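Re: that backbone. Tokens:
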């Protein structure tokens, strides 16, 4: 993925916010939050968006599968400072959608992520459920 464009780093575009406390165990030998731990924090933010938006898959009778995750690490993050994960929906397809995320710490963007999630039933992609489509506008990124 290319370096994020300026508009992708605008925190005001993201409708969902989730605060994540960092843990001492998230540190790496360089004394900053490890990239794998940060990917887990990004996952937590994405799943919280799914739940808060009412798309939690078991409740819909389908599964949500992660098809792609790309992360651009932009700055170091540190313990014990909290991290805020900002999330919003970008592209919407027939059976998938993109979730874009900013990872912020102390007002600094430390990472940008884009995920493609696919709605699946019995191992095959299915159209986005009506419940998801009905609630989508609130969670879309603003222009």
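Recovered sequence:
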């Amino acid at each position: 993925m290319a370096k994020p464009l300026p508009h992708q780093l605008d925190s005001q575009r993201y409708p969902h916010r989730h605060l994540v406390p960092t843990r001492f165990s998230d540190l790496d030998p360089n004394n900053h939050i490890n990239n794998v731990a940060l990917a887990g924090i990004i996952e937590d933010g994405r799943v919280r968006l799914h739940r808060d938006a009412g798309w939690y898959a078991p409740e819909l009778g389908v599964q949500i599968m992660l098809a792609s995750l790309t992360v651009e690490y932009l700055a170091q993050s540190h313990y014990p400072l909290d991290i805020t994960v900002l999330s919003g929906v970008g592209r919407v397809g027939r059976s998938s959608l993109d979730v874009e995320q900013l990872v912020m710490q102390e007002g600094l963007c430390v990472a940008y992520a884009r995920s493609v999630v696919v709605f699946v039933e019995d191992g095959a992609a299915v159209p986005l459920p009506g419940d998801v489509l009905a609630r989508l506008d609130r969670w879309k990124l603003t222009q």
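The chain has one domain: 7-139. The radius of gyration is 15 Å.
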